[in-house]
Write a structure and sequence with these properties.
mainly alpha; 11 helices
């Protein structure tokens, strides 16, 4: 990290180095497992770590030289995208495997069609693996993990959170502003919860919930244990919205494919289409259930005053920080 003058900025960067060092270790620990391709959870864990890096890096960008920051950000952004594609296919394959397992007693055309779709998804995932491996190799060849480690190592970071954090300026003041901005973005999609057909808005809401959660995770140590219950509730909301989005992806894909096949006069596959129709019906039913869960969870969140409580916590801590000279997390 590029050292700059000023005690406040120095403490700010030491905190950033402490946070990023943890996520950096989580990210690097999964590279070999992802390249081997045997453990789908390695892909999931590395993807989550890459997202946390992407959330944290911009917050501490002033601690990097411009060149290093841009190189690391590009590398992490690229691997996050391909890991996302791989994870999406892993989730779809897992869903199909579970669906087929529950239909084993039936050997009808729907089951055979589902098995054909599963086979195709596996082929797509296998075809994607070389790209995932190449991105991991490129990441190492460009020395992005090593470069990030070197930048982080430029600061003296303790084993735990820095014991004395700046109260005037960063991190308390900026953490409050960053969190409130993400809250406002999430709340801007509140109206879409009333509309079961607002798939695009629900997807955007999922992204907003994810970004709010990741930003809170960056700053959570500054607030003792006050944000832990809120993080738990946000994770539940994000999971519901994620399930909703997974269903929407299936529904859109299957509707489009079935429509194209209906427009064809030849090369129709009744078993394959039966499988698609079966999955489409199942995903529509699941989506309806997930939408109801979203409505219930959102109503519970707003009724509990979670967002106003969160704003109150960060605002109070910011004011307190401005009145004192130091802040010591437990």
């Amino acid at each position: 990290m590029a050292k700059r003058r000023g005690d406040q900025n120095g403490r700010f960067c030491r905190y950033g180095a402490w946070y990023l060092s943890r996520v950096h270790r989580e990210f690097c620990a999964e590279i070999e497992g992802v390249k081997e391709g045997r453990d789908t959870e390695a892909v999931h864990r590395m993807r989550v770590a890459s997202r946390r890096l992407r959330a944290g890096l911009p917050l501490f960008s002033r601690c990097f030289s411009k060149k290093v920051y841009q190189k690391v950000s590009r590398g992490v952004r690229r691997i996050t995208s391909d890991l996302g594609d791989a994870r999406d296919l892993d989730v779809q394959i897992g869903y199909l495997e579970g669906l087929i397992e529950g239909l084993r007693v039936d050997d009808g055309p729907e089951v055979r069609g589902c098995m054909a779709i599963l086979s195709r998804k596996r082929e797509l995932r296998d075809a994607l693996q070389p790209k995932v491996i190449a991105d991991c190799v490129r990441l190492e060849e460009k020395e992005i993990p090593a470069l990030l480690e070197e930048e982080i190592g430029a600061w003296d970071i303790p084993d735990g959170p820095p014991h004395r954090l700046p109260s005037r300026g960063f991190p308390m003041k900026r953490s409050g502003r960053a969190i409130q901005k993400k809250i406002e973005k999430l709340l801007s999609y509140a109206q879409s919860v009333r509309d079961p057909d607002a798939a695009e808005a629900h997807h955007a809401m999922r992204i907003a919930a994810k970004r709010l959660r990741y930003v809170i995770e960056v700053y959570a140590p500054l607030y003792r244990n006050e944000l832990k219950p809120i993080l738990k509730r946000l994770k539940a909301l994000q999971e519901i919205l994620g399930n909703l989005h997974d269903c929407d992806v299936w529904i859109m894909e299957l509707q489009d494919t079935l429509q194209r096949r209906e427009d064809q006069s030849t090369d129709r596959d009744p078993e394959l289409e039966a499988g698609m129709a079966f999955i489409l019906k199942d995903r529509r039913k699941a989506r309806a259930a997930h939408y109801l869960a979203l409505k219930e969870e959102w109503e519970a969140l707003t009724a509990s005053g979670l967002f106003s409580d969160l704003i109150g916590i960060v605002s109070s801590s910011t004011k307190q920080a401005c009145r004192s000279s130091s802040f010591t997390p437990r």
